[in-house]
Design goal:
By secondary structure, the chain is an all-alpha fold. Helices cover 46% and strands 0% of the residues.
């Protein structure tokens, strides 16, 4: 028995099932190629607005690594950003991220708005919702925040948290007799 070869058994496939499988594969390829013809606006294009943040270099490095692709006009558009349907998802995520917070457009914002944006950003980081898991895995593993990263971000984001916001506390002051 030691000289006998083992035989792999395959279940027989009916000709009808083979034909159906071939048609399904060809249809899938045709649909995938057809999806590539649907253009996505703004993929690979960044607006020209830029704002130089006053963050310390260590904090700016963390922000560049974890936040800038979605929350600035400095998005790095990788090759897979041009392949549908992933391109649609990426364009939607960048658009939504810039809508919520765009560091590149802070030149138009006052100090109270910037402070509020930073406090909101810290709440998102602290809750674990930023950066989102689908950004980190599988292509941006370096965007996962360590405890040290979070401590640096908290010190920067919350540095002015105790200060009164402009015009906010004046209405609460008691009237002088």
């Amino acid at each position: 028995m030691s000289g006998e070869a083992t035989v792999a058994y395959r279940l027989p496939m009916s000709p009808r099932l083979k034909k159906l499988l071939r048609v399904g594969i060809v249809a899938g390829i045709v649909v995938f190629v057809g999806l590539q013809l649907v253009p996505v606006k703004h993929v690979g294009v960044n607006p020209s607005d830029r704002f130089k943040m006053d963050a310390p270099p260590a904090v700016e490095a963390i922000l560049r690594r974890t936040c800038f692709d979605c929350h600035t006009n400095e998005t790095r558009w990788p090759l897979y950003a041009r392949i549908a349907p992933g391109s649609w998802l990426l364009a939607r995520d960048v658009h939504t991220g810039r809508e919520h917070l765009n560091f590149s457009e802070w030149g138009d914002a006052d100090e109270a708005t910037r402070r509020s944006d930073l406090e909101n950003a810290w709440e998102q980081v602290e809750a674990g919702s930023m950066p989102p898991w689908f950004y980190i895995y599988p292509f941006h593993l370096d965007a996962k925040l360590s405890a040290e990263d979070k401590a640096l971000l908290k010190s920067y984001f919350m540095k002015d948290a105790g200060k009164p916001k402009e015009g906010g506390d004046k209405a609460k002051e008691p009237a002088k007799p």
